[in-house]
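Project outcomes to date are best conveyed with an example. Our students and postdoctoral researchers have been running inverse folding experiments weekly, and each run begins with a structure described purely in tokens. The record below, which covers 260 residues, was selected by the lab manager from last quarter's runs and is presented without edits.
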């Protein structure tokens, strides 16, 4: 299958990557992720380019829609693991767990917070880790800012078949929408564009779920750590954990990755 891509532009996600693994983020969307960055991104646009063949287009879209469903399952798994780590005293993991490395790293961070040694001393002892935490914290803030932008603005969704634009839909957060069709589109083309719209909106919901899972996970671990300001301090580690878990679990999608 050839001639297809799924692009999210005008957002500038941290690292130039979609944490869901569903959309390409153009390199020219790169922005500064410092706290002082106040440059708003351009209008978020979800663009789906597919082959002209209806059968090929439908097969590719079906694969991507299935991948989107798997993203929601993977987010549920990440949320479950965070709840387990934050709510269990004697945490243990199976050596065959595919997420063993990610869980061990997060648990190590939590143990460091609970250590009698002050966290400020730990930071002085490990400048490299401190730098990584600061970068992760800035990326997390930037990610939340971009998701807020996606929610605040209309979602602009475009579908093209063999390079020919078919339709463009603007969808507000409250559900109001307008669609502009190009001349001479067929009913099959319209159906394909409607599926593209559903895919884009489902991805928007998944990005919001990432924010929710990270924030709730950090809050739960902060209760276990029992330190002042623990939620804020733990956000970089939880953000890395959720992002890395999503990336790792995507490796179990071989039948999907052949399509998207």
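After processing, the design step wrote out the following sequence:
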């Amino acid at each position: 299958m050839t001639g297809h891509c799924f692009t999210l532009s005008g957002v500038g996600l941290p690292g130039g990557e979609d944490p869901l693994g569903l959309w390409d983020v153009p390199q020219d969307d790169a922005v500064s992720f410092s706290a002082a960055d106040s440059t708003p991104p351009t209008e978020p646009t979800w663009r789906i380019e597919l082959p002209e063949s209806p059968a090929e287009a439908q097969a590719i879209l079906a694969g991507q829609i299935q991948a989107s469903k798997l993203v929601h399952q993977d987010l549920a798994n990440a949320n479950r693991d965070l709840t387990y780590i934050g709510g269990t005293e004697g945490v243990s993991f199976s050596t065959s767990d595919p997420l063993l490395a990610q869980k061990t790293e997060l648990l190590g961070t939590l143990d460091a917070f609970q250590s009698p040694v002050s966290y400020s001393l730990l930071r002085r002892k490990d400048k490299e880790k401190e730098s990584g935490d600061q970068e992760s914290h800035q990326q997390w803030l930037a990610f939340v800012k971009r998701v807020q932008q996606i929610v605040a603005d209309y979602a602009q969704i475009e579908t093209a078949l063999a390079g020919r634009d078919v339709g463009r839909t603007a969808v507000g957060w409250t559900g109001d929408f307008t669609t502009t069709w190009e001349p001479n589109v067929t009913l099959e083309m319209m159906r394909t564009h409607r599926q593209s719209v559903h895919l884009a909106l489902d991805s928007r919901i998944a990005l919001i779920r990432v924010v929710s899972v990270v924030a709730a996970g950090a809050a739960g671990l902060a209760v276990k750590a029992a330190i002042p300001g623990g939620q804020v301090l733990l956000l970089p580690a939880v953000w890395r954990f959720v992002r890395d878990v999503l990336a790792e679990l995507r490796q179990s999608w071989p039948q999907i990755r052949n399509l998207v």
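The longest strand covers residues 164-171. The longest helix spans residues 187-225. The training component of this project remains on track.
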